[in-house]
Design goal:
The chain is of the alpha/beta class. The protein is built from eleven helices and ten strands. The strands form two sheets. An eight-stranded parallel beta barrel has the order 1-3-4-5-6-7-8-9, surrounded by six helices. It binds 1,3-dihydroxyacetonephosphate (13P).
């Protein structure tokens, strides 16, 4: 199923302080019109989320958490829960490779987080992807299978329409070494096949799948044109409003569909 809305996510990672984030949002809102055919999601650091949520026009941009803990409350020093993020964000990244590899988060963490997000009315963006070693050794398919089974274990087929999957090959993140379109198409096919296996053909068609890894304004259109790719998860190229806005424009099909805010 071709989705009529592309999703463009800017993952700022641990960049931009409160002042910079607020200025960025002001700049981006001048550069990007409200579009019916593009959902723009910003994922700032957790400390800037609250103030951006007061500043943002939700018709124009949505907000995402980069991370959260899966319990709703309790003695978990330093953590923020999905229930605390409820009303502040509409989306949340889960299982980003930096969480998996730097902070050693497991598939058990992923499945609990995916469920916690859904339970709290937040759409999880479950990130999956193989390392360079796994890629070189032909293990991509197995890794994607395992990460999907691991991450979605607590999700029913009714809940699956709240979930977005992002294919981010670890070797393409922050390296400038972007994946070949054929790699992305193949991986997206594997993901849909596995969703079909787990939830049936309808769900496999309906699930939205993003690509992420060294996306730039130059490569954005190529990835967006690939069959089965519903959007992009952008890191470094989302850190400057004018660069990110040109990626958003690539996702917008026709200016006649623009609305004024
Ligand atoms: P880069 O676009 O900087 O490679 O980062 C991708 C990413 O990790 C987005 O979540």
């Amino acid at each position: 199923m071709a989705h009529d809305k592309k999703i463009i996510v800017g993952n700022w990672k641990m960049n931009l302080n409160m002042h910079e984030a607020s200025l960025y949002l002001l700049q981006l809102s001048k550069l990007v019109k409200v579009r019916r055919d593009v959902e723009v999601i910003l994922a700032p650091t957790v400390m800037t989320l609250q103030s951006l949520s007061l500043q943002v026009n939700l018709r124009q941009f949505k907000l995402a958490a980069q991370n959260f803990f899966w319990r709703d409350h309790g003695s978990y020093t330093g953590e923020v829960s999905a229930s605390q993020l409820r009303g502040v964000v509409q989306y949340a990244l889960v299982g980003h490779s930096e969480r998996r590899h730097i902070f050693n988060e497991s598939d058990k963490d992923m499945r609990n987080k995916v469920a916690a997000a859904v339970r709290n009315g937040i759409k999880p963006i479950l990130c999956v992807g193989e390392t360079a070693w796994e890629h070189a050794n032909g293990e991509t398919k197995d890794v994607l299978h395992d990460q999907l089974i691991g991450g979605l274990a607590n999700i029913t087929s009714e809940e699956l329409d709240q979930v977005i999957v992002a294919y981010e090959p670890v070797w393409a993140i922050g390296t400038g070494q972007n994946a070949l379109p054929s790699d992305v198409t193949a991986a997206v096919k594997v993901i849909r096949k596995q969703i079909e296996h787990l939830y049936g053909a309808k769900s496999a068609e309906a699930i939205q799948i993003l690509y992420g890894g060294s996306v730039t304004p130059d490569s954005a259109a190529d990835y967006l044109s690939l069959a089965g790719v519903d959007g992009l998860l952008v890191g470094a190229a989302s850190l400057e409003a004018h660069i990110f806005s040109s990626i958003i424009e690539k996702a917008h099909k026709g200016s006649s569909e623009a609305e004024e805010d």
